[in-house]
Amino acid sequence: MFSRVFFGSLAVAATLLSQQCAAKFPFGGYQLETVNNWGDNPTGLEMQIYKPGNVAEKPAVIFALHFCFGSGSLYNDLNNYSEQADEHGFIVVFPSSLHENGCWDVSSNTSLTRFGGGDSTGLFNMVKFAISEYGADPAQIFVTGSSSGCMMTNVMIALYPDLFAAATCYSGVAAGCLAGSPSSSPIFSDPACANGNVNKTGEQWAQIVYNMDPGYKGHRPKFATLHGTADTVVSPSNLDQEIKQWSTVFGIKQTASNPNTPQQGYTQLVFGTGTQFVAYSAAGVGHTVPVNTTLDLEWFGITSNAA
Ligand SMILES: *[C@@H]1O[C@H](CO)[C@@H](O)[C@H](O)[C@H]1NC(C)=O
Ligand SMILES: *[C@@H]1O[C@H](CO)[C@@H](O)[C@H](O)[C@H]1NC(C)=O
Ligand SMILES: *[C@@H]1O[C@H](CO)[C@@H](O)[C@H](O)[C@H]1NC(C)=O
Ligand SMILES: *[C@@H]1O[C@H](CO)[C@@H](O)[C@H](O)[C@H]1NC(C)=O
């Protein structure tokens, strides 16, 4: 039983690695700067940034979180955030997790607790550092990520809703889905969540979010989340769980379903007025839903040009 899970997970890991090795580095030309001494770093995270030469006076900051077996610099090489930063004058922070096979800890109680001392605490401190060090606009702090980075995005907006203006992410799971798993790495985790077997009601999912920042009644970051229907690594039924969680937290119901939006085969599911929460189901797309930085920037409301 254990060995079946283990070898199944190894196969998944090998697939992910080979996909990434085979991938070209379309945006490989953007050099990151490594930042040290950015604050209390209980789990040994690394902070790298892309700061354009023409950075805005009070810049927006996008935190871009990598997938498992990845790194901040690989995520930068594969996606278009730095080129967009040159165009719009914002800063991109590419943190790296150096443990659990390069996954973000979205399973331990430590990391699922506000200021609990896990990865999420380190990321919180990175955000605070970015605001003070770069004079960033505290009202324009954004978080996004893929796979494990999307799982962590769900966790960060649940733990620190006051910190972020908006979030997007690709191919993740609801906040708390992996709670109690012995690990967040696909090799050692309890596969129930990734396999789509953690199925809760909207109320149950929402309660998890409420418990992550008890008593919080303020602004919550607007959230857009994407998932492929042919994802064999993180079951697409996790999109339904995320939808139940966040539509309940926001107290809004689905109001529209727009086919072929923003591209062929993607269905945009609109909740409420569409300004707080939307989900995209990408027909026939596997675990790697291509990051669309244009969609991200539109959702974040980043339109201003550089200084
Ligand atoms: C990357 O972003 C820039 C905007 O800064 C855009 O002009 C360019 O077309 C984008 N490239 C791709 C391949 O998305
Ligand atoms: C999780 O950690 C918090 C803070 O350290 C602690 O108060 C709480 O009891 C823990 N919960 C569980 C289920 O271990
Ligand atoms: C989750 O539970 C609901 C209600 O019992 C059920 O209708 C739905 O099919 C289940 N979904 C999954 C993915 O198991
Ligand atoms: C990305 O999203 C934008 C709108 O948000 C859309 O216009 C564009 O076609 C999308 N890019 C791709 C490659 O689908």
UniProtKB/TrEMBL annotation:
<comment type="function">
    <text>Esterase involved in the hydrolysis of xylan, a major structural heterogeneous polysaccharide found in plant biomass representing the second most abundant polysaccharide in the biosphere, after cellulose.</text>
</comment>
<protein>
    <recommendedName>
        <fullName>Carboxylic ester hydrolase</fullName>
        <ecNumber>3.1.1.-</ecNumber>
    </recommendedName>
</protein>
<keyword id="KW-0119">Carbohydrate metabolism</keyword>
<dbReference type="GO" id="GO:0005576">
    <property type="term" value="C:extracellular region"/>
</dbReference>
<dbReference type="InterPro" id="IPR010126">
    <property type="entry name" value="Esterase_phb"/>
</dbReference>
<keyword id="KW-0964">Secreted</keyword>
<keyword id="KW-0719">Serine esterase</keyword>
<keyword id="KW-0325">Glycoprotein</keyword>
<keyword id="KW-0378">Hydrolase</keyword>
<dbReference type="InterPro" id="IPR050955">
    <property type="entry name" value="Plant_Biomass_Hydrol_Est"/>
</dbReference>
<dbReference type="GO" id="GO:0052689">
    <property type="term" value="F:carboxylic ester hydrolase activity"/>
</dbReference>
<feature type="signal peptide">
    <location>
        <begin position="1"/>
        <end position="23"/>
    </location>
</feature>
<comment type="similarity">
    <text>Belongs to the carbohydrate esterase 1 (CE1) family.</text>
</comment>
<keyword id="KW-0732">Signal</keyword>
<keyword id="KW-0624">Polysaccharide degradation</keyword>
<dbReference type="InterPro" id="IPR029058">
    <property type="entry name" value="AB_hydrolase_fold"/>
</dbReference>
<dbReference type="Pfam" id="PF10503">
    <property type="entry name" value="Esterase_PHB"/>
</dbReference>
<dbReference type="GO" id="GO:0045493">
    <property type="term" value="P:xylan catabolic process"/>
</dbReference>
